[in-house]
Amino acid sequence: MSWDISNPIFNVLSKRSADLEVLKDIAVLNNWEVDFVKELSISYQTLVLTDLEQTILWVNDGFQSMTGYAPDYAIGKKPAFLQGPNTSEVIKGRIRETLSSGGRVSETITNYKKNGSAYECQITIIPLIDSNQVITHYLALEREAA
């Protein structure tokens, strides 16, 4: 069996590998103690890296295909720009509460694409901890709920 580079499985593996390499490089700069191979083993379409104030610092290529927004548009904004009238305040509160206590969170929240259409976003947010055991950033793994 030969691998055709247009094979969807090959493309997914290639994108995950590229995401992993970028995150490993950023991890070295920030002294993060995280096993990205393990963390990226869950299903995701997009990755969003934020600082503690939740300002977006980096998104992977999947961000644009899932949301319609170009990466350079998202960088510097807070993920809240994806929220709208049907985004649950209760879920947003649970996310804030869990993150403020240093925990990892998984929720499904209503977000909005650039074209205005709503979608259910399954999100897992991982606090990134440095060698001093201090949370310095957050990594969100997101995918559109089926």
Describe this structure in words.
This is PAS domain S-box-containing protein. Residues 47-102 form the PAS domain. The model is unreliable at 1-12 (pLDDT under 50). The protein has one domain: 2-Layer Sandwich (Beta-Lactamase), CATH 3.30.450.20. The protein is globular. It has a five-stranded antiparallel β-sheet with strand order 2-1-5-4-3. It has 146 residues and is an alpha+beta fold. Helix content is 34%, strand content 27%. It contains five helices and five strands, in the order ααββαααβββ.
What does the radius of gyration come to? 15 Å
CATH topology: Beta-Lactamase
SSE order, one letter for each helix or strand: HHEEHHHEEE
- State the secondary-structure class: alpha+beta
| CATH class group | Alpha Beta
CATH superfamily: PAS domain
**Portion in helices:** 25-40%
Q: Number of helical runs?
A: 5
Principal-axes shape call: globular
Task: Kindly report the spatial arrangement of strands forming the biggest sheet.
Answer: 2-1-5-4-3
Low-confidence stretches: 1-12
**Total individual domains:** 1
Task: Summarize model confidence as the mean pLDDT.
Answer: 89
The count of strands amounts to 5
Keywords: Chromophore, Flavoprotein, FMN
Protein name: PAS domain S-box-containing protein
Domain PAS: 47-102
Pfam families: PAS_9
